[in-house]
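Appendix B. Raw example, untouched.
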Amino acid sequence: MSISCIGNEALLQVKLSLTQDELFIKSRGPFWDRYWEEEEYWEFEDEEFEDEGENGIGIYPFVRHQQGDEFSVKKFNPKDLMDYEACVPRDDCSQIVVGGVPTDGYELLFDGKAIDPGYEFYFDALNPVTYTTVGSCTTTPIPVCNDAEALFELRFWSGTIGSHDSTFRVEDQDGNSVLSGSLGGSFSLDKTYACLPKDDACYTFLIGIQEQRDPTNEAASSYTIFFDGELVGSSETWLFESVRFGSCGPSCEEDESVVEFFMYHEMYPDEEFEYKWNLSSPSVSISGVVPHGPGISFLAHETMCVPKGSCASFYIEDRNNVTQTYEDEVLPEGITDWADPNIDWDSLEVANVTVPINVQPVFMISMDNVEYRRVDWGILNQTTNMGDCTYADLCNEQTEDLFYVERRIPADLKTNWGDIPPTPLLMSGHIGAEDWNFGYIYHKDNGKLKNLLTARNYINRASDLNTTLKVFECVPKDGCDLSLNFTAGPVGAPREQYNAKKNGMQLTDGQFVGNVFGSFVTPFGQNCPFSFSSSNALTLSGGAIASVVVVAITVLIWD
C-alpha cells in the first residue's frame, strides 16, 4: 500500500517490475555479491542497504532524490526488494536519479502519472543511470544562432561527487580560447551552449582532470558534445582528451607525426611559476613553457609536428624549487622543537614562513595516438623518447643496451569470471592490471637496483581500452644480470598484451614463476640460462621448479 501525501505534496514513486531473482541477475552489484558469496570471501551485509548516504553508489542499484541541497538515497536490496516512495513538494523542483536498474525494469511516477526516466548515462557495463526532473524546474535557455553560426552544446553528467573537478576549453584553429569552464558536482546534469562561427572554422574541445575517476567503483562522469546538431564526441572515462570538430584538416602534414602534450596542474593555484619543456628530433627543436598562477587555466595542451619515422625526445624540467610563504606562529629563539615544555604558548610571535611545496602536476605525452607517458611527477627532469627509435639513435654502444617494451590494452577487455561485467578501462590498481619492472635480479634486497625501470615511471593513471604505451630507454650493458619481470594478476583476470625487445631483437625466453599470482621473468640477454652464474642470483630448485611453466612467445599475452 502506497504512502499518503497531504497538502501541496505529490507522491514520487519508482515502481520496480523486476523480481528479486531478476534484479539479482540483471544488476551489476549483485553479480559481485554472488561471486564473493560463492567463493565464501564475503557475506552479503544487509546494513549496507540501511545507509542513506552515497557510500556504495556505483556498486548497488539505487534511486536518488534531491531538492535543493537536500537529498536522499535508497539502495535496492535484492534480498528485500521494495519500491521507492516519497512525498515531495509539487511546486518545487526535484531531481530523480535511478542507477543500475534496466530502464524496462521500473516505472517512474509523479502524482500518479508516468514520466520519462530522462537522460541516460553510463553506470556500469549492464545498465545505465537515468536523470530527470519533476515539479517546477527552470532550464538553461538555448541560444538562437544566426545563419553564419552553429550551436555548440556540451552535456556534462557529474556522476558521484569527487575530490577533483574537470576543466574544459574550446579553442579555435589559432589556439585561442572561445569557451571554458569547470565541471563538477554530484549527480547533476550541466548544459553549456555557445553559438560559434561555422564557415571554414575548426575547433578543438579539450578536457582534463587531476585524478581519473574509476567507473567500476562509482557512478562515472561523462560528457557529450554536439556541433550543428551532430554528435562529435563523448566519453565516460578520461584523464585528458581532445576532440576536433568543424571544418578541420589534418593536424600535421602527411609526412609528419602528431605529438600531443597535456598537463593538468591544480595544486596551489595562487603560486606563480612555470614549467619549461622541449621537443627535439634530428631536424626539429620546439620549446615552450606552461605558466602556473592566478587566473591561469589548470589545463595545458600543445599539438606539435615532427617528421614521420623519426626518433624524438620530450624533456620537461623539475619544479622542486617551488615554495609557499604564509604567516604562522614561530618557535621562540633558542627552542628548536615544538614539543619543548618551555614554550610559552600565550606569547608566540607570528612571522612569514617559507616552505617547499610539492606541486604534483599530471601530464601525458603521445605520438600518433601512442602514449609514452601518463603520470604525475614521481620522477622529475623527465626525458621521454618517442617514435621510431633505434639503438644507434639513443644509446652508447660501448656501455648501454636499448630496452623497449610495448603494452597494449585490447578494445574488448573482459574477464574469464563469467558473471563479472567487463571493465570500461583498466585502473592502475585493478586486479589483473599487470605491473612490470626492469632491473638486476640478484639485488633482491635493493629496491633501486631491482627496479631501475618500473611501469609506474611511465603510467600511474588509468588506461583507456584500445590504447598502446611504448617505452624506449638505454640501460647498462650487463647481460644476464638484468631481467624484465611482469607481475601477473590472478587466473581469469583481464589481460594486457606485452612485447619486449633488446636492441631491436625480440625477447622470447620467458618463464612464469608462481601459481595463481606470480612473475613472468624474461632474462635481458641472448640465450641466457634461467639460473644465473652470480652467487647472489635468483635460482629455482626443489618445489619452486615444480611451479615453473616454460613458454616461448613473441608477444606476451595471457588469455
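End of appendix B.
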